[in-house]
Predict the 3D structure of the following.
Amino acid sequence: MSDKQTLYKVLVNGESCHGGRLRWSLPTPTADGGYTPGDWHRVTGPLKICQSGIHLTTAPYQSWWVWDAELYEAEAEGIAAWDGDKCV
């Protein structure tokens, strides 16, 4: 898959909900009706699908959506691997 696809993160109450418990820095509203992006999160060490790293998807509604979820568009640098619609 291309690194240029739109990536998404599915969260519940601002936290990862498919493994891990990262509390994400979320976008904040601006006075003009827009949003300021949240802060970047970084991971050190080896990255491996379903084991370590930050995971994003191109298809959040296919298999990642859960009750009370929130959906955020995300950006990524240094994508290490793809597995179907998921990257790390």
In short: The mean pLDDT is 92. The first strand starts at residue 7 and ends at 12. The two ends are 12 Å apart (CA to CA). Helices lie at 60-63.
